Amino acid sequence: MRKMQTGFTLLEVLIAVLIVSLCMMSIAAVLVTVHRSTNSGYLAQQSSQLASDIIARMRQNSAAAQSGSYNVSYTGGSITAPGMMCDPSGSGPCSGAQLAAYDVWQWLNVVNTTLPGANATVTVTLTANNNYDVVTTVSFDDTPAGTTLHSSSNRRTFQLETLL
Questions:
Q1: d(CA 137, CA 132)
Q2: Which of 126, 142, 121 is nearest to 36 (CA)?
Q3: Model-level pTM?
Q4: Beta bridge partners of 155
């Protein structure tokens, strides 16, 4: 008479380990994709916030903005410090143009350190209605997310347009 076997055979254990391993690898792949998309979203939010920041600075110093003192085109590299380091609280002896140069320098430093491969442009133009149109464009290298999320381009661009 045969005895009934209890427990698992070695083959059953190996199959169970294989199934669990495949599930763990799938979960790891999902976690990597989530991390990439979260980082991409964070950088997009930062570029939006940076574009809003320079516009807020321009509104505080609108005469210099209207004269073109905030117009800038940055494509990477070093950022030259302005000749005068102005105190943003207004207690220093700075002109509007000097404060604009300080604002742009400070803003570009934050853009450069916050966003990988950053490019930024700010243009102020007078419209036909005698309004000042401000276009701020901030772009960054989104290669880690670009390879899995939106493979057509690895650069993400945020553009904000408003009137002064």
A1: 16
A2: 142
A3: 0.73
A4: 141
Residue with tokens 């609280």: 89
Q: Which carries the bigger pLDDT value, residue 32 or residue 99?
A: 99
For residue 23, being part of any structural domain is answered with: yes
- The structural domain count of the chain equals 1
Q: Which of 19-23, 33-37, 133-137 has the lowest mean pLDDT?
A: 33-37
Q: Tell me if 93 is assigned to some domain.
A: yes
**pLDDT one-digit tens code per residue, 44-84:** 899 999 999 999 999 999 999 999 999 999 998 888 888 87
Using the structure block, give the residue that is written with the tokens 């408003």.
Answer: 162
Using CA atoms, how far apart are residues 89 and 85, in angstroms rounded to an integer?
12
1 falls within a domain: no
Domain residue limits at 157 = 10-163
Characterize the bridge pairing of strands 132-141 and 72-74: unpaired
With H, G, I as helix, E, B as strand and everything else as coil, classify residue 126.
strand
The C-alpha atoms of residue 35 and residue 58 are separated, in whole angstroms, by 35
Residue 61, pLDDT score: 92
